[in-house]
Amino acid sequence: MSEISRDVLFFPESQRPFLEPHLPPLDGESKSSNLPFTTLTFATSLDSSLAIAPGVRTTLSGPQSKAMTHYLRSRHDAILIGVGTALADNPGLNCRLKGVGGYGGQDLRGQPRPIIIDPTARWEFTEQAKILALVREGRGRAPYIITGNPSPPAKQKQILEEHGGKYITLNTTSTETEAHRFDWTAILGSLTNEGFRSVMIEGGGAVINTLLEQSSQGLVDSVILTIAPTWLGQGAVVVSPKRRFDAGGNAIPASRLRDVKWYPFGEDVVLCGKIKL
Ligand SMILES: NC(=O)C1=CN([C@@H]2O[C@H](COP(=O)(O)OP(=O)(O)OC[C@H]3O[C@@H](n4cnc5c(N)ncnc54)[C@H](OP(=O)(O)O)[C@@H]3O)[C@@H](O)[C@H]2O)C=CC1
Ligand SMILES: Nc1nc(O)c(N)c(N[C@@H]2O[C@H](COP(=O)(O)O)[C@@H](O)[C@H]2O)n1
């Protein structure tokens, strides 16, 4: 069996319609805001964890919900993760559904552009990175890395550009607790400048927790979560955004979904909704 046929995933036509209201429009119609249609999507445990420990790749999705995630990848122009995930997972970030480009389809049709948020350009990848191997095999696109470092390492820049990727430089700001932070509107604006009309944001913890802060959660158009029937336990990488307070200083929920729909998917459930603003 070839490497490609072993990897191929199937997501039946009959299971696709329920997702449609939660996805970027098929006709490419853009939003009024000029920013890409933004879907927040990840797999979580019952204790709101993404991975069993920092730096550890952890399988949560069952086969059906994994195939659904790859369908989501085929429906977005770009797929975004933080550098923590790039380092922990050595991810492919391509779409391995039967029929997309590289998996029986033409060219790279249906393959999203991977976007990595790496403010200091600390990801020291080599040609062996899975994401680049897939590019050489014609099964994925080269990543664009958003950085605040005006002089990223020459070696990585060369490798990236040889594969058709690039660094995109964006200004960072400093907060009391963080030395180099991107504003999410600026991140999404830079994707618009590159011509992307939709992006799915997969994680990891820091990416999701900053996106769900009050100042940026309004940028999220759709939320599609896979919930797996497992508790990862203490010490895991947790989704838990910064606490919010009302005018009287009382703690209030950091974020809440509206128009929620739940769909069983094998042993998992898939939750779709919108952020209530
Ligand atoms: N179950 C799932 O669906 C998923 C699981 N994961 C898991 O999540 C874990 C990784 O999570 P985590 O360690 O939190 O890493 P992240 O992937 O969230 O990357 C975090 C880093 O990205 C940079 N970053 C994130 N947001 C911003 C911002 N707004 N501005 C500037 N820089 C930003 C920072 O880099 P710097 O430190 O250089 O400042 C930050 O430390 C992995 O174990 C992975 O397996 C990941 C995705 C999905
Ligand atoms: N949907 C989903 N389910 C899980 O169980 C996961 N661990 C993840 N992780 C995300 O997918 C990336 C790996 O992608 P490749 O299979 O290498 O293409 C990983 O980096 C996370 O972003 N997602």
Automatic annotation (TrEMBL):
GO biological process, one term: riboflavin biosynthetic process
Residue span, Bacterial bifunctional deaminase-reductase C-terminal domain: 36-271
Entry annotated with the keyword Oxidoreductase: yes
EC category name: oxidoreductase
Keywords: NADP, Oxidoreductase, Riboflavin biosynthesis
Gene3D superfamilies: Dihydrofolate Reductase, subunit A
Pathway: Cofactor biosynthesis; riboflavin biosynthesis
Gene Ontology molecular function: 5-amino-6-(5-phosphoribosylamino)uracil reductase activity
Keyword NADP attached: yes
Enzyme nomenclature, EC number: 1.1.1.302
Swiss-Prot/TrEMBL catalytic activity: 2,5-diamino-6-(1-D-ribitylamino)pyrimidin-4(3H)-one 5'-phosphate + NAD(+) = 2,5-diamino-6-(1-D-ribosylamino)pyrimidin-4(3H)-one 5'-phosphate + NADH + H(+); 2,5-diamino-6-(1-D-ribitylamino)pyrimidin-4(3H)-one 5'-phosphate + NADP(+) = 2,5-diamino-6-(1-D-ribosylamino)pyrimidin-4(3H)-one 5'-phosphate + NADPH + H(+)
InterPro entries (alphabetical): DHFR-like_dom_sf, RibDG_C, Riboflavin_Biosynth_HTPR
Function: Catalyzes an early step in riboflavin biosynthesis, the NADPH-dependent reduction of the ribose side chain of 2,5-diamino-6-ribosylamino-4(3H)-pyrimidinone 5'-phosphate, yielding 2,5-diamino-6-ribitylamino-4(3H)-pyrimidinone 5'-phosphate.
Similarity-based family: Belongs to the HTP reductase family.
Protein name: 2,5-diamino-6-ribosylamino-4(3H)-pyrimidinone 5'-phosphate reductase
Species of the source: Monascus purpureus
